[in-house]
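Example for tutorial group B:
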């Protein structure tokens, strides 16, 4: 389960940000996870809840924002958020697309004390 290694890296980032800002704890962690990222959200939540103990994130709230797939059509230059995983431009029906969001996971913000 790569969610455990993701959480380990996330907690390390939280520790670094807390230290850099002279904070003793993190009260909120907000991440954005794309639907094409390959991250299992439930496993990530469980891993965070398990591994945050005895870290600066011990009492932190973990908020996961889901990012739908955003495409840019190379034919008509239309930018669209896909509601389904149907990779066709809704304007011109082209399959010549570039995914511009929804494939990654990002640490969006931290609240520190």
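The residue assignment follows.
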């Amino acid at each position: 389960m790569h969610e455990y290694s993701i959480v380990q890296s996330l907690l390390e980032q939280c520790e670094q940000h807390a230290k850099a800002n002279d904070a003793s704890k993190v009260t909120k962690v907000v991440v954005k996870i794309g639907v094409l990222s390959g991250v299992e959200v439930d496993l990530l939540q469980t891993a965070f809840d398990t591994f945050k103990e005895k870290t600066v994130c011990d009492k932190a709230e973990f908020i996961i924002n889901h990012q739908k797939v955003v495409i840019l059509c190379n034919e008509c230059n239309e930018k669209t958020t896909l509601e389904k995983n149907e990779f066709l431009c809704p304007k011109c029906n082209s399959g010549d697309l570039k995914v511009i969001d929804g494939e990654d996971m990002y640490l969006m913000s931290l609240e520190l004390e």
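The CA atoms of residues 30 and 109 lie 5 Å apart. Compare this with the pattern of hydrophobic and polar residues in the output above.
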